[in-house]
Amino acid sequence: MYVRTADGEKTVGSWQAGSPAEALAYFERKYEGLVVEIDLLERRVRTTDLASKDAQTAIGHLREQVDAANVVGDLAALGRRLDQLGTVVEERRRERRAARAKQGEEARAAKEALVAEAEELAGSEQWRSAGERLRALVDTWKGLPRLDRKADDELWHRFSQARSAFSKRRKAHFASLDAQREETRRRKEKLIGEAEALSSSTDWGVTAARYRELMTEWKAAGRAHRDAEEDLWTRFRAAQDVFFQARSTVFAERDGEQRENLTRKEELATEAEKLLPITSVKAARAALRSIGERWEAIGHVPRDAKNAIEGRWHAVERAVAEAEESEWRRTNPEARARAAGLTGQLQDAVDKLRRQADQARAAGNTAKADKLERELAGRQALLDQALKGLAEFGG
């Protein structure tokens, strides 16, 4: 049995079991077997991720089978199909190589961007958000393809250094913060000790002022550890509450007493005001003295009412004092004698000026008369005032 090829006829075997037609059919079936294998390989190349190396190896094996096959069929067509398939595999290999190169470039760019961001975050003081972001960058890094060993190792080294630098700074920060909070706790313990010592004080004004100072110092001290801060504040506030509750109780009792005192003083003020107008200085002074003794015995009144009630009392005191002064002036012999002497002197001066003015006018000296009359008017005004004062002494 022979098959024709481009190189001439090729012996494919001999057949002794039957007719020539049966022999031809047998060797054609062997040819069809090769076709099926090539069909399968073409399908695998088109529809799967068969590696180029494996595909070329399979093509080589099939080419060997075609070259050595004892079959009847178009062997040249099979060779062309294998050549075409080899071209497809080579093109795919180049495409895959280009894709891997592009993917590598993209991966490098992505990893360089991750490194740059990590190095920037290494100097951040946003400890929580920066830490979370760095962890997210690690997850992103793990999802990227590896580069060549040298490039990948270099980038990973920079990435790790940035993370380590941030971790060291964060650790140092929180260590310092812990020390600061511990110092704050000790300061607040000291403030609590003083607050508790003051809680039983009855020096209300001074102690209340000191509590205000302690509160200012408390706020300036900062915050202790979260688990200690609430307990510290509860103790500090409790000490203040003991003092201020005690003060409120005492002040409430005192306010009630002072309101009662105010009512009593209002009654005395009304009693004192009934002395006005004064008809008898002696009786008024005696009555006011009695009222004053009771006034002083009463004690304090509420601060907001003090000025008003004392104003009423002082008004009566002033009225009595003025009446006493007027009475003294009226009954003082020495003052009366001085007033009488002054009145007499002024009267003599007025009479003299009147005579001089009359004489000058009679003599026709009008200018002198006018001058004397002006002087007379002034002395007369002084005399009238002196006579009025003398009248207050009873004539």
Cα end-to-end separation: 185 Å
Total strands: the figure is: 2
Helix tally equals: 11
The oligomeric state is: single chain
The overall pLDDT, averaged over residues, is 87
Low-confidence stretches: none
- The helix/strand order is EEHHHHHHHHHHH
| Fraction of residues in helix | over 70%
Can you give me a brief rundown of this structure?
The protein has 11 helices and 2 strands, in the order ββααααααααααα.
Give structural notes.
The chain has eleven helices and two strands. It has helices at 20-47, 52-68, 75-121, 127-142, 149-198, 204-220, 226-273, 281-298, 303-331, 333-362, 366-392; strands at residues 2-5, 8-11. It has a two-stranded antiparallel sheet with strand order 1-2. α1 runs parallel beside α3. The longest helix has 50 residues, at 149-198. The radius of gyration is 64 Å and the shape is rod-shaped. The termini are far apart.
Please describe the structure with a list of short key phrases separated by commas or semicolons.
mainly alpha; 395 residues; two-stranded antiparallel ribbon; single chain; 83% helix
Note the topology:
Blueprint: E1 2-5, E2 8-11, H1 20-47, H2 52-68, H3 75-121, H4 127-142, H5 149-198, H6 204-220, H7 226-273, H8 281-298, H9 303-331, H10 333-362, H11 366-392
Antiparallel strand pairs: 1-2
Helix pairs in contact: 1-2, 1-3, 2-3, 3-4, 3-5, 5-6, 5-7, 7-8, 7-9, 8-9, 10-11
